[in-house]
Amino acid sequence: MRTAALAVLVISAVLLIAIVLKKRLGWRWLGLFGSHLVLAAIGLYLVDFTRLAGDLYIPLNPATIGTVSVLGLPGVAVLLGLKVTLFG
């Protein structure tokens, strides 16, 4: 099982590098992606630290940061809505 997971990881990495080199995306997309992740983490931290959402706490983990980096500010609202709906 571990060997299969390692093989999938290696194949995925090779294909990702092939796509980047073939499309000639350069390294600009990596900086943009990184800045989105950092800004999402800072935004979530500010929402938690300033208590803008009341007593609700959104943990900083890859799933929440990814959601906010893809959806932007509405992603924070989605996470808060899920928190209220699922965990009351």
TrEMBL record:
This is Pro-sigmaK processing inhibitor BofA. The chain crosses the membrane at residues 28-47, 59-82. Pfam families: BofA. InterPro entries: BofA. It comes from the Bacteria. Keywords: Membrane, Transmembrane, Transmembrane helix.
